[in-house]
Write a structure and sequence with these properties.
49% of the residues lie in helices and 8% in strands. The protein is α+β, with helices and mostly antiparallel strands. The chain has two domains: 77 residues, 3-Layer(aba) Sandwich (Glutaredoxin); 105 residues, Glutathione S-transferase Yfyf (Class Pi), Chain A, domain 2 (Up-down Bundle), CATH 1.20.1050.10. Helix 1 runs parallel beside helix 3 and helix 4 packs parallel to helix 6.
Length: 224
């Protein structure tokens, strides 16, 4: 049994999605960031830095923080969604670290300056709008002609997808990025992704981009 301490953020969602994909038995504990529950004494015993997600694997007593490390650990624990060696393994890890070090922090700032506080700092809003588009362009270029980020479906896709699911918050129209759009919708159809997206609480269905067809019609690829 694994205890998952999490909230409805992209970093939290990628961990719950991964646990569902790996088919591991787990129990989710909601840490409501809007209520400051991450600073509670009990949670700080698990996560000294008051960050989610965190897991406790009761099969070996391991407590682990940081979503990138958690996904790598779960992949190695199960032997799934991460090649065991060679260039294929590092191709997956490259995109995991790209998300952790670049995409996540940039889009987090984009949420803050473009959605929640759009008039606070115009220069910052312009900067993160530009950086967000640059990262989407990189993702679009890489996914052109590819089904997934690094060979087969992997923890790289699990890591990046929840951030892209917030496309509305960083003012991105996925129809402008057709390869990203196709990849996003393909992963959104996975049952494990749909289950993980509802953890620890259901806040709504997976966001969909506007249909590419006429206003009153919906393409089959968008029916989840």
């Amino acid at each position: 049994m694994i205890d998952l301490y999490t909230w409805i953020t992209p970093n939290g969602l990628k961990t719950s999605i991964a646990l569902e994909e790996f088919g591991l038995l787990y129990q989710a504990h909601a840490i409501d960031l809007t209520k400051g529950e991450q600073f509670s004494e009990n949670f700080r015993k698990i996560s000294a830095g008051s960050k989610i997600p965190a897991i406790v694997d009761h099969s070996n007593g391991l407590t682990l923080l940081e979503s990138g490390a958690i996904l790598t650990y779960l992949a190695e624990k199960t032997g799934r969604f991460l090649p065991i060696s060679g260039a294929e393994r590092y191709a997956v890890l490259e995109w995991v670290f790209w998300q952790v070090g670049g995409l996540g922090p940039t889009l987090g700032h984009a949420h803050y300056f473009l959605t929640y506080h759009p008039d606070v700092a115009p220069a910052a809003s312009a900067l993160f709008a530009s950086e967000t588009k640059r990262l989407y362009e990189k993702l679009e270029q890489h996914l052109n002609g590819k089904d997934y980020l690094a060979g087969d479906y992997s923890i790289a896709d699990m890591s990046v997808w929840p951030w892209v699911s917030r496309f509305e918050r960083h003012k991105i129209n996925l129809n402008n990025y057709p390869s990203v759009r196709r990849w996003y919708l393909q992963i959104a159809k996975r049952e494990a992704v749909q289950r993980g997206y509802r953890v620890p609480v259901f806040t709504g269905e997976i966001p969909l981009p506007p249909p590419l067809t006429h206003e009153n019609s919906e393409s089959s690829e968008e029916r989840l």
